[in-house]
C-alpha cells in the first residue's frame, strides 16, 4: 500500500469512527509528516490504517465526537437586521441580516470590496450604518485586519492597557495575555515594541487583545494575515475553544477551507441585479 | 553490520545498536513489554529537556536505547498525553519545510513526571531486591 493510499484509507477510517474533522485532519497531517521525514513505509511505521485509526480513537478519548461534546447553541448574542451602507453613491451593503448565538461561529465571505470589513465594523459599533440595527448581548472583542496596535508599546503593555478597559487588574491582564499568546505559539513577554514586530506577530497581538477579558462576542477581521501554516492551524483551534466556551464568533475570511465547520456563512458577494 | 562498523570506527549510536543487538532476540519481547509501562514517562522526560515533534521524539528515544519506537505506538500516546493535559501541542512551520506538530511539557506534566520518576525508582529497587534474593539462593 503506497503512502497516499494508506493516508486516504486512514482518513476514511477516522471518519467512519465518527471522529470529527477537526481532530482527524491533524492526525492525518502528522502521520504524513512523519512518513515524509522518516522515509518509512506506512505499514511498517503505523501498521494497518484500520488498527491505527482505532488506536487514535482511543488516544483521543471522548473528545473526538465534537458534535456530541459540543454544548447546544445558547441565546442570541449578535443580531444584525436589514443592514445597509453606502459610500457616496456606491451602495456597499444592502439589507444584510446575521444572527449568531452563544457557541456559534459565523463566517463572512465575499469578493474584495464587497463590504465584509464594513459590515464587521458596523457590528462592532465602529462604523455607522445607513439602515438597519445591530443588537449585541454582552461584551465585544474586535480584531481589526490591520493596525490596532500601539507602535511604541511592548506586547505586555498592550495586554495591561486593553485589560484595564475591561476591568482586569495589571497582573491578571498580563497573565491572561501571555497565556493566550502561548496558545498561538508566541512568547508575548518579548521586550520588542509593537512597531518592530513582524506582520504575523502583530496580528497575534491583535488576536490576543480581542480575546482579553473573555468577551461574549468576538469579531475577527481576517486575523490570520501573515500567519504561517502552523499559526493558522493554532488560530482555528483557538476559535473552536472560544466557541466551545460559549462565545459567539464572527470571522471575516476569504479562505474557504474551514467553511464546512462553521455554523453560518454570510456571503456578501453581490447578486448580479444589485450593483456593488 | 560489518560494513557499517568498518572504516572510521562505529559512531556512538552504532555502538549502542551493536550493544542492543547482543540482547536480541531473546530479550526483545520482554523489553517491548517493559516499555509499554514506561514509554509515556520516557516521552515526558524527553520533552522535559525541550519541546519536540513526533519523528524527532521517536529518533531520540531510539537513540537512547529503547530500540525503534513505532509511529503507530507513539502518536496515539501523544494524543492521550495531550488530552490528559500533561503535554501541549502546536503546529509550526510549513512555509519551507513540512508543518510539524510540536509538543511540550505542561506544568501538570512536570508534576506527574516528578512523581512517577520517584515511583519508578522504588519499583525498580523492589524488583532488583527480589531478584537479588532469588539469585542468592
UniProtKB/TrEMBL annotation, chain A:
Domain called ABC transporter: residue spans: 78-276
Keyword ATP-binding included in the entry's annotation: yes
Alphabetized UniProt keyword annotations: ATP-binding, Nucleotide-binding
Annotated GO MF terms: ATP binding; ATP hydrolysis activity
Keyword Lyase: no
PANTHER family reported for this sequence: ABC TRANSPORT SYSTEM ATP-BINDING PROTEIN, ATP-BINDING CASSETTE, SUB-FAMILY H, MEMBER 1
Identification of the protein by name: ATP-binding cassette domain-containing protein
Amino acid at each position: 500500500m503506497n503512502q497516499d493510499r494508506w493516508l486516504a484509507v486512514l482518513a476514511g477510517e477516522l471518519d467512519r469512527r465518527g471522529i470529527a474533522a477537526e481532530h482527524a485532519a491533524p492526525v492525518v497531517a502528522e502521520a504524513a509528516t512523519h512518513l515524509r521525514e522518516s522515509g518509512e513505509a506506512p505499514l511498517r511505521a503505523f501498521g494497518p490504517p484500520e488498527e491505527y485509526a482505532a488506536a487514535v480513537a482511543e488516544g483521543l478519548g471522548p473528545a473526538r465526537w465534537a458534535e456530541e461534546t459540543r454544548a447546544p447553541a445558547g441565546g442570541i448574542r449578535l443580531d444584525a437586521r436589514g443592514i445597509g451602507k453606502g459610500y457616496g453613491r456606491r451602495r456597499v451593503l444592502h439589507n444584510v441580516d446575521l444572527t449568531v448565538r452563544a457557541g456559534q461561529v459565523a463566517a463572512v465571505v465575499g469578493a474584495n470590496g464587497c463590504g465584509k470589513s464594513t459590515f464587521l465594523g458596523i457590528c462592532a459599533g465602529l462604523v455607522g450604518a445607513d439602515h438597519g440595527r445591530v443588537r449585541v448581548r454582552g461584551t465585544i472583542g474586535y480584531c481589526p485586519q490591520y493596525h490596532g496596535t500601539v507602535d511604541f508599546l511592548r506586547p505586555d503593555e498592550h495586554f495591561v492597557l486593553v485589560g484595564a478597559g475591561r476591568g482586569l487588574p495589571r497582573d491578571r491582564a498580563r497573565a491572561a495575555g501571555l497565556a493566550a499568546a502561548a496558545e498561538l505559539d508566541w512568547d508575548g513577554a518579548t521586550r520588542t515594541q509593537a512597531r518592530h514586530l513582524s506582520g504575523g506577530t502583530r496580528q497575534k497581538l491583535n488576536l490576543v487583545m480581542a480575546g482579553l477579558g473573555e468577551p461574549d462576542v468576538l469579531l475577527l477581521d481576517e486575523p490570520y494575515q501573515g500567519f504561517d501554516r502552523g499559526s493558522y492551524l493554532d488560530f482555528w483551534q483557538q476559535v473552536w475553544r472560544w466557541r466551545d466556551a460559549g462565545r459567539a464568533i464572527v470571522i471575516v475570511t476569504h479562505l474557504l477551507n474551514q467553511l464546512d465547520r462553521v455554523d453560518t456563512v454570510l456571503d456578501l458577494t453581490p447578486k448580479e441585479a444589485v450593483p456593488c | 553490520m560489518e560494513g557499517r562498523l568498518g572504516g572510521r570506527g562505529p559512531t556512538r549510536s552504532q555502538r549502542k545498536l551493536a550493544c542492543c543487538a547482543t540482547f536480541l532476540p531473546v530479550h526483545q519481547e520482554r523489553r517491548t513489554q517493559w516499555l509499554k509501562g514506561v514509554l509515556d514517562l520516557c516521552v515526558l522526560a524527553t520533552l522535559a529537556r525541550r519541546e519536540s515533534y513526533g519523528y524527532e521524539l521517536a529518533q531520540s528515544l531510539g537513540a537512547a536505547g529503547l530500540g525503534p519506537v513505532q509511529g503507530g505506538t507513539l502518536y496515539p500516546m501523544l494524543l492521550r498525553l495531550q488530552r490528559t493535559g500533561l503535554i501541549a501541542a502546536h503546529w509550526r512551520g510549513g512555509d519551507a519545510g513540512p508543518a510539524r506538530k510540536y509538543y511540550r511539557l505542561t506544568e501538570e506534566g512536570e508534576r506527574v513526571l516528578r512523581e512517577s520518576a520517584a515511583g519508578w525508582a522504588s519499583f525498580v529497587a523492589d524488583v532488583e531486591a527480589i531478584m537479588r534474593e532469588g539469585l542468592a539462593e
